[in-house]
Design brief:
alpha+beta, five-stranded antiparallel sheet, 9 helices, 28% helix, 29% strand
């Protein structure tokens, strides 16, 4: 017992404790000394013992307990030996439990370290997720109008009936003038559509999307009928060759005279076929403010002057970049002695007269005309504020844009300048099914709108055509356009020399077309 108490001394207080290795050492000593069920002591009570010890009727044992107190145990002298029983469970150390708890602590520590590593990785990855979310949200935001403007909701039948009534009036007027098989066919189709609308009103069986698509087709057909002259003698025989079949490699490659730093703008040759003024002129219009706005452009009288960057004349059509007459986006085209372009922060097309230095404008038709970067050319990268695109071809002036009413799809309108009244007018409008932000650019040739898409850093592809003469579209084109760098600011066709002009991020490229 004395040896046992030497290894397990009484606790010195409530806070007394021992290191784990000392506890294990003492536990092994105690197990060696004690029986787990009972402790028996056999000191010899023989002659070797003193008389005082022999006379003890009882043996008092002082044993340290868990709470630091002693335990009194009675012993008996039997057959010359001292016998006593002690319950060892009162002070035994729970070694098995201690080791189990220690193992759990070590396991928990490993789990905590692993969890901390995962949290650290998650903390580092969280900003990337947030950036992706912001990016996706920003990309989706322009498309929210599709939901709010009711792309797939039922249209008002009353408004649909009014639109159909207007179509019937226009068709009746054209039919009175032409009275041919095409107008007769259209009259029958419009009559059938009127019956469908009346059936919808009576039976409440609504298929608005189908009706609206039929109405769009009929409206385009009516607009196409307006284009046919009363006495057609093949004034534009060149356009009878059909669609473009091939486009050459760049036959002209030149850095903009303003430098490569101005990555957005437009350029080309004067596009009016039957004009004497500025007949062989070449022009360049850079967007010098944030690659979005500008107020000047440069004109060269000959191709040689343009290539040598000499003998030019600069025109200022607005006193500041933020003036109402300033240009917005790569939208310009020089047609005759006037520059046509998208007016600053508006759905208007401006006409700047080079002789009189005056500006006239017209507002584009449609519900929710896109401007100020609402419906720019995109496909791969969006070209800032390229919402309104003015083009020219053998038939005259055109403007390409998109509207909320047409669900962001491309709209083609025809422009006409009235020299006597000094007014700019929109005479015809066609609606396509091609989403404007799904194309990288577009241009007009012989009344046909061609659209391009991004292939790679050095190639674009003409993949779509919409014919305003028939209202039909072709999605099977695959005409490559080589380029020097990635971005395409503008594409425009010139009917005088049948070439396409590209403003390629500060590089000026020209291509020959083949039919």
């Amino acid at each position: 017992l004395s040896a046992d108490r030497a290894i397990f001394p009484p606790s010195s207080g409530e806070g007394a404790s021992f290191p784990a290795h000392r506890v294990k050492e003492r536990l092994r000593w105690r197990v060696w000394r004690l029986n787990l069920d009972a402790l028996r002591l056999w000191p010899t009570c023989g002659s070797a013992l003193s008389p005082a010890v022999k006379m003890l009727p009882f043996l008092l044992l002082l044993i340290s307990t868990k709470d630091g107190h002693t335990q009194r145990v009675l012993g008996q002298n039997k057959d010359g030996s001292c016998h006593c029983e002690v319950n060892s469970t009162m002070w035994s150390f729970p070694a098995m439990k201690y080791e189990a708890v220690l193992l759990q602590v070590q396991t928990c520590k490993g789990s905590l370290n692993s969890l901390q590593e995962q949290m650290l990785l998650s903390s580092n990855y969280l900003p990337q997720i947030q950036a992706q979310l912001v990016n996706v949200t920003a990309r989706l935001q322009p498309f929210q109008y599709l939901h709010h403007q009711g792309l797939y909701t039922a249209l008002s039948l009353r408004l649909l009936g009014q639109e159909l009534s207007k179509l019937e009036i226009d068709l009746s007027s054209i039919h009175t003038q032409l009275n041919n098989t095409q107008t007769q066919k259209l009259s029958k189709e419009v009559g059938k559509l009127r019956k469908d609308v009346e059936r919808i009103q009576n039976s409440d069986i609504i298929n608005i999307k189908s009706v609206k698509e039929t109405l769009r087709y009929l409206k385009n057909s009516v607009e196409s009928c307006k284009t046919i002259p009363k006495d057609f003698r093949g004034q534009q025989r060149y356009c009878l060759k059909g669609l473009i079949t091939n486009i050459s490699e760049p036959i002209t490659t030149k850095i903009s005279p303003y430098g490569k730093s101005y990555i957005s703008g437009s350029w080309g040759r004067q596009a009016q076929m039957d004009t004497e003024g500025e007949k062989d002129s070449y022009w360049v219009q850079p967007l010098v403010s944030s690659h979005i706005w500008g107020n000047t452009f440069r004109v060269y009288q000959t191709y040689e002057d343009f290539m040598a960057s000499v003998k030019h004349r600069d025109y200022t059509f607005a006193p500041a970049y933020t003036h109402a007459n300033a240009i917005e986006g790569p939208s310009g085209v020089l047609y005759g002695e006037a520059l046509y372009y998208n007016c600053y922060r508006s759905a208007d097309v401006c006409r700047y007269d080079l002789k009189t230095n005056t500006v006239k404008r017209v507002t584009l038709p449609g519900t929710g005309v896109g401007f100020n970067n609402k419906f720019p050319y995109c496909y791969y990268d969006c070209r800032l504020n390229s919402d309104v695109d003015v083009e020219a071809d053998e038939t005259g002036l055109w403007v390409l844009y998109a509207t909320v009413g047409n669900h962001g799809n491309l709209v083609v309108s025809r422009l006409a300048w009235d020299g006597e009244a000094q007014t700019l007018n929109v005479t015809q409008t066609w609606e396509t099914r091609l989403f404007k932000k799904a194309v990288s650019n577009a241009f007009m040739v012989c009344g046909v709108m061609y659209a391009t898409r991004y292939l790679d850093e050095y190639r674009e592809e003409v993949f779509y055509a919409f014919d305003t003469a028939t209202g039909k579209e072709d999605n099977s084109l695959a005409l490559p356009l080589e380029k020097v760098v990635k971005g395409v600011a503008s594409l425009s066709y010139n009917p005088v020399n049948k070439k396409i002009y590209m403003y390629n991020d500060g590089y000026l490229l020209a291509y020959q077309t083949y039919f």
